[in-house]
Design goal:
The protein is built from seven helices and 13 strands. By secondary structure, it is α+β, with helices and mostly antiparallel strands. It has three domains: about 35 residues, no CATH class; about 90 residues, Sandwich (Immunoglobulin-like), CATH 2.60.40; about 110 residues, 2-Layer Sandwich (60s Ribosomal Protein L30, Chain: A). A five-stranded mixed sheet has the order 9-10-13-11-12. Strands 5-4-7-8 form a four-stranded antiparallel sheet, with helices on one face. It has a two-stranded antiparallel sheet with strand order 1-2.
Length: about 300
Amino acid sequence: MVMKSVWIIISLAAAGPLRAQEGVLSDVVVKEQESKLVYSDKPHLDLKADPFASIRKSLEPEDALLLADPPQAVTWKKTYAEFLNSLLVIRPGGVALSQRPRLVFHPRDELDRLVRRSVDDKDRNRYKWSLSIADADGNIFQRFDGAGNMPEQVLWNGQNEKKEWLQAGQSYSPVYAFTDPFGMSYTGVGKALKFRGIVHEEDQKMVIVLDSSVLFGQDKRRQSLDDGEGLELLRSVADFMKRFYYRVPMNLRIYASDEALAMTQAKAFVQYFAAELLVKENEISTRSFKAPYLSQRVEVVLEQGKK
C-alpha cells in the first residue's frame, strides 16, 4: 500500500506582494509526490536469549584447580567418597594379615651369590648345605640342612620343631652355610626378618601377635596408641576380624614392663576395638603380664567356632 501526500504550492507574483483582488483567485498549483511505504506485515520478534544458559556455569573454569596448592592436593582423602573415611569400612588396600604365613628361602640363589658363579645341577648336588634361622642373640631358632639334591626353595610357616612361633617385633637372620666336595666352606647371611604382626593357630585358637614398639613407641611404654603406624596396624587387625572372625569372642593378652602399664595399654586396646567392631567393652576380655623388653608384645586371641 502506497500513501501519497499532496503538497499545495502557492505561486507568487515575481513583482511585489500579492494583492488581493475582489472576485479574483490567485494561481494555485497542486502536485502529487510519493512519500513513504506502509506495510501490513508484522516485524519479527527480537528476543535476547543465551542458547548456552543451561550449561554456562559448567563451562566456567574451576579456579581452585589453578591455585598453587589446590584443595584436592592437600589430602588424598578428598578424592573419594566421604563414607570411605569411616573406620567401619574395610580397606582392600590396607596392610594384609594372612592366616597361613609362609616364608620362602632360596638356597640355590644364595650359593651362586657366595661362589660368584652359576653352579650347575651336577656340581650343586655335591654340596652340603644348611639354613639356620637365628634370633637377635644368635641362638638358633630353626634349622634346615641336607647333602645333595639342594632344593630350589625352602618353605617355612614360622614355627620351629619345639612348636614355638616367631615373635612379632624381634629380628631374625637366615644364615646359609655350604661346603663343596673339597671341604671349602661358604657362609652368608640373608635379609633380616622382622614382622609387625604374625597370625598363627594355637590350641584351636587364632592368635594375632603384634609388635608393641609399633603400637606404643620404641620404648614400649606409652599409655596411648601411636597415631601413625600403631593405628594403621590395628586397623589391619580390625579389617582381618571383620572379614573372617566378626563377632567372635576376643581375648587380649598384653605383655609390658609391669602389670600396671599393661592394664593401661589394654584399656586403650579395648576402647579402639569396641568402636571399630561395634561391640561392648565388657565383651572383650583382657589379661596383663609383666615381661622383659624383647618379650613385650600384644596378643589378640580369637576363639574359633564360637560366636
